[in-house]
Amino acid sequence: MRDFSRRGVLGLGLGAAAAVGIAGCGAPAEPGTPGSIKNPKPGGKAAAAELIGDGSTADTGPQPNQPDKPVPLQPGETPPQFVVFSWDGAAEIGNGLFPRFLKLARDHGAAMTFFLSGIYLLPESKRSLYRPPNNPVGASDLGYLKDENVRSTLKCLREAWLDGHEIGTHFNGHFCDGPGSVGRWTPDDWRSEIDQAVSFVTNWRTHTGFTDLDPLPFDYRKELTGGRTPCLLGRDGLLPTAQRLGWRYDASSPGGLQVWPVRRSGLWDLPLQSLPFPGHSFEVLSMDYNILANQSKNTTRGVPAHYPAWRSQATATYLGGFRRAYEANRAPLFIGNHFEEWNGGIYMDAVEEALKGMADKRDVRLVSFRQFTDWLDVQDPKVLARLRGLGPGRAPAGGWSTYLTAA
C-alpha cells in the first residue's frame, strides 16, 4: 500500500455536523505523575480576567501548569526525549474524545497542542460570516457543528488551556482540492483566513448568543504562535504571513525525518515524520489518518475483523518511532491525530497506549509545540547543529558525555 504522506489528512468533517452526544467536557481528574507539567493542577482556575472585545476571551495572565523555564543543555548532558501529541480540528463533537485525552494528559503529566479549526466556534446559522479565500461565502469542506457541540468545544478549550495545553490553529474551511485549495493560496489569502479564525474565536459570544459560559481564559492573538495547514498544503504561501505575525513555528511539513529541526523563513519547521511501519518496507507518516490509509485504503470503516491487528500495528508504529529516537539521536517525535472513531476507534486506543508506553521513561517530556520551541530558543545554535548531525536511529559515537562536549 502507498504511504499517502503527501495526500494529507482529513479533518473532523466526517459526520461532525450531525453529532451531538455528550455535553460538557468531563470532570477534572486527580493529578498523576508529573511529566512535562510542573505540579499539574487539573481544571485549574483562571486568574482575575481582563475581558477582551465582546467578552468571548479574557487576558488572565500567565498560563498555569507550565514546565520550569528551560535552560541550555550543558556539555556532556543527554538531551531530553521530547514527544508532542497534537490534534487537528480539536472539537468535542459528542464522542467524548476531547475529555478522554484531557484526562489521559493529566494522569501522565503531559501537555499537548490542540489545533482549533475556527469555524468550530461559528454556528451553522452564521456561516455567511465566513468568507474563505477563493471559495464561495460560507463554504467549508468541514461540517459546521451543532450548537450543542460548539458549547462543549468551548468548555473543553477552556479546560485544556487551564490544564497547560496549547491552543493553535488548523485554520477554517479545510480546502484541499480544486481551484480553491489552500495549496494555491497567497500570503494575503492566508492573512484573511487567519484573521477570520481569530475573529471566530474572539467573537463566539456574539455569534452564538451564549451568555452562560465563561470566556476563554486567554488572548488568542497572543496565544496563537503556530498551526498546521489542511492536508499539509500551502505552507509556502503561509510562511511569509506567519513570520509577519510573529509566529514561532509551523507544523505543516509532511514526511520529515526523525532528526532535530531547523528554522525555515524564521519559524521552527516541526514536521509530521516518517516512522517505521511494521510489516512493510516503507515508512508511514506520523498521523492517524495516514496509518488508516495504508490499512483500510482510505475508508474509515474497514473490515472489523482487521481492527485488532490494525490497532496493534498503529501502536507499534508510534512506539517504534519513539524507540528509534529515544535509543539513538533523541530527535523529537511529533504525532498528529483527530478526535475521530475511524475503524472502530482503534487509532484513539493506539495513541493512548503509545503515550502510556512513553510517559514513564527517563528523560521523556510530553510537551506542546510551543513548550518545545521555548526549549529550542534557549539552546546554543552550535549544540543544535551538532544534534542535527545525527541521522534517524543514529546514536552519538562514544555516547552523549563526549558528543555534545565537542559542539
Describe this structure in words.
This protein is an alpha/beta fold and 407 residues long. 31% of the residues lie in helices and 11% in strands. The chain has one domain: TIM Barrel (Alpha-Beta Barrel). The chain has helices at residues 97-107, 147-162, 187-202, 204-208, 220-223, 235-244, 288-295, 307-329, 346-359, 369-377, 381-388, 400-403, and strands spanning 50-52, 57-59, 81-89, 113-116, 166-169, 249-250, 263-264, 267-269, 274-276, 283-285, 333-338, 364-366. Strands 3, 4, 5, 11 and 12 form a 5-stranded parallel sheet that branches. Strands 6-8-7 form a 3-stranded mixed sheet, sandwiched between helices. A two-stranded antiparallel sheet has the order 1-2. The model is unreliable at 1-23 and 27-40 (pLDDT under 50).
